[in-house]
């Protein structure tokens, strides 16, 4: 079985395989590509849940920022130990639209929903900073989604569906950044060979020849 590109993360990564998601787009971009030879890559995309505030409605998800950073470090070390040549990309949590989170809470619980946000953009930014800092310390690549999205005016509603999870436009930002980092490293989809020859290369009178040449 040949290696694959692995995406580690929370519900934001899980939802990335829905229509319009960055994971689905990435799978499509690298479909039929031969990654049995280096490179092989992994993205690590955590922090959105860890940054939930202690004492608020989502405190069961809270992980102190120092522990969050240490957990990322352990994941990176484990992957490097498993495959020293693996391309590892840390992705920061996205920014938080606090009003969007409040609107989402009210949609679930009505006016009784607590007005205090269970996440803030400022605190999430601290987690993002630690993620970037760790990547520099460990010599791995990083994507600062928290900063990148906030470069666009109206990012709150453009990129976030409920103040936290990504819209199709938000997914597109992550996809473009992942592809950029992959390409800057050594994982450019267009330059990778296909698993099998294209149908235009196959001679109907001797189809075996094209497959034999591909295996050379």
Shape verdict: globular
Given helix and strand content, the structural type is alpha/beta
Sheet with the most strands: spatial strand order: 1-2-3-4
Distance separating the two termini: 19 Å
The major beta sheet can be summarized as: 4 strands, parallel
Q: Quickly name the level 1 CATH class.
A: Alpha Beta
Mean pLDDT: 85
List keywords for this structure.
single chain, 216 residues
Describe the 3D structure.
- The structure is a single chain.
- By secondary structure, the protein is of the alpha/beta class.
- It has one domain: SGNH hydrolase (Rossmann fold), CATH 3.40.50.
- Helices cover 44% and strands 8% of the residues.
- The chain contains nine helices and four strands, in the order E-H-H-E-H-E-H-H-E-H-H-H-H.
- The protein has a four-stranded parallel β-sheet, with helices on both faces.
- The longest helix is centred in the middle third of the chain and has 18 residues, at 65-82.
- It starts with 5 loop residues before the first strand and ends with a helix.
- The model has no long low-confidence stretch (mean pLDDT 85).
